[in-house]
Structure prediction request, 241 residues.
Amino acid sequence: MVLLLSQVLFWLLLFLGERSVLPAGASYAPEIRMQRLAEDGAVLDAEPIAVPLLPAPAYRYRDDSGAGHARFEHVFEFPGGDTPWALYLSWNRRISEVRLNGRPITARAPLDIWSVLGGFDPVLYDLPAELLRPGSNQLEFQVYGVANKILPAFFVGELTPLFNAYAWAQLISVDLVVAAIGVMLFVALLCAITSWPASEAQRVRGLMGLLLLWSLRNFSFFGLDAGIPPPWRQVTHYSLT
Prediction:
């Protein structure tokens, strides 16, 4: 009975969590256009490739050409007016630049393109009013990746519902991570100051090591190792994982 109730609670929380990070009334674009890029930025495709939305949800194109970069393009309609608009990305992994009508825009928090573990937090971009024009507007996402060209699900619209979804996503992917780090460090400290029987000491030390390593792994979400050169930083992240 307890197991059944725990499963019901788990799936209920999972459902509510997923619903809370989606903007109210928003829908995914069923497909998006993509062009592969050479190292110097030259376009390799004569015509854009249509990339469908996968259940993940994300847009992914499996590529055997060896090109290391790609540009996804999305056209949306802006009705005009003074209401602020924004772009909400469900995660930011492998995204190196975002442009609105050909001009670069910046996220509220800077992108960390070298992060292995910290690239799955949500990102919110304010769309500058001076770059928006009534009617059609174009967003460009430059991504990197050789075997797979991937763009996360995204939403474009009025700022308020997007910010609410972004705030919930930050709570789940950032604030709860901080809370988990605090709990694990507290348990590790409690294990360290408690007198354990000799037969249990080795197991407790193993548990403490696991808790400390997992806390360090979670700390990597927040870019605390930004001073490490990129290649070694990736090795560190993979090793902790």
Notes: The chain is about 35% helix and 30% strand.
